[in-house]
Amino acid sequence: MPHLPVRRRLLGAAAAASLAPLVAPSSGRAQAAWPVKPVRVIVAFPAGGLTDALARAHCDQLAQRLGQPFTVENKAGASGMIGTGEVARAAPDGYTFLFTISTTINQNRVLYKKMPYDPDRDFAYVSGFDAGHLPLAVNAGSPIRTAREFVELARRERVTLGNYSAGSFPHMVAQQLNKNHGAKVEPVHYKGEAPMWVDLASGQITGAIGSISALLPHLQAGKIRVIAVPTLTRSPRLPDVPTFDEQGFKDEVFRIQGWIGMFAPAKTPREIIARVSQLIQEGAGSERIRAINANFGLREKPWTAEEFERLNREIGPVWNNMARELGVSLD
């Protein structure tokens, strides 16, 4: 499967959305400017990870600019399907939004026979975010110091690899290593990153894959060791850690990039989506958002609704094909 240099090809300049006061048409009559009451923002994963951090930071920015609370609610479970399904059923009136990861929109359609939403029909793209690097780490007391050594051990004996959600990128990594490299990696599914890193730091699991910011306290405490990062470039937060590709792993799963996305229920007024997308772009320049980007090692500004949709239309099938080829099923 060829590597897709997604960002460099897809992310062109998008037309700026108007910031004029919004008016939602209804039966030909103009209603009050949006928003006139608090807005719910459902995060489909637990607090403490990158998805939650981005959602809360951007919601605070939106609240300041629009004069109404943007209240974050964590609705985790079922690989993000609980919170995602709730947004799919919400009224398309601009008062419910979703923050989730690529798994819930892409891989889940392959991993599950039935979902409580249709990824293609039930959502409108609002803005997308680079998910950054998701490093592979082991317990600091482990003799493993490279990804190659991790796989060599997994060929000799069963090892466990923690992931923050069934069907996620780390789950795909475990399946890829088993299928293509003769390993015996058992994926261990957690509801979010926090308990996963605690278990790795205490030696309950062999390895784990997740966000840099969530693992950083354990790394700084000398409890874990990072041994590899995905994508074709090293992380600016971990410049001394080689990529999987540098260590000889050429599988597509180690090369393509995941995302975090903000969505609205389908048929939400386009004016509202354009306004939120534009404010997300502007908020990315704030000190708080820049700090999050630096903390998580993120490289790029958010994508507009149009850029984000184009991006996922191309890389979504790649993730789906990978899930099919690996034979991953969660039903």
Give a description of the structure.
- The chain contains twelve helices and twelve strands.
- The two termini are 27 Å apart.
- The longest helix has 22 residues, at 305-326.
- It has 331 residues and is of the alpha/beta class.
- The relative contact order is 0.20.
- The chain has two domains: 36-131 and 258-326, Bordetella uptake gene, domain 1 (D-Maltodextrin-Binding Protein, domain 2), CATH 3.40.190.150; 136-254, D-Maltodextrin-Binding Protein, domain 2 (3-Layer(aba) Sandwich).
- The protein has helices spanning 6-10, 50-66, 81-88, 102-105, 108-111, 147-156, 169-181, 194-201, 212-220, 270-283, 287-296, 305-326; strands at 23-26, 29-33, 39-43, 70-74, 96-101, 123-130, 136-139, 159-163, 185-189, 207-209, 224-228, 259-265.
- The strands form three sheets. A five-stranded mixed beta sheet has the order 4-3-5-12-6, with helices on both faces. A five-stranded mixed beta sheet has the order 9-8-10-7-11, with helices on both faces.
- Strand 8, helix 7 and strand 9 (185-189) form a beta-alpha-beta unit.
- Helix 2 (50-66) packs antiparallel against helix 11 (287-296).
- Mean pLDDT is 88; it is low at 1-31.
In short:
The protein is an alpha/beta fold and 331 residues long. The chain has helices at residues 6-10, 50-66, 81-88, 102-105, 108-111, 147-156, 169-181, 194-201, 212-220, 270-283, 287-296, 305-326; strands at 23-26, 29-33, 39-43, 70-74, 96-101, 123-130, 136-139, 159-163, 185-189, 207-209, 224-228, 259-265. It has 2 domains: 36-131 and 258-326, Bordetella uptake gene, domain 1 (D-Maltodextrin-Binding Protein, domain 2, 3-Layer(aba) Sandwich); 136-254, Periplasmic binding protein-like II (D-Maltodextrin-Binding Protein, domain 2), CATH 3.40.190.
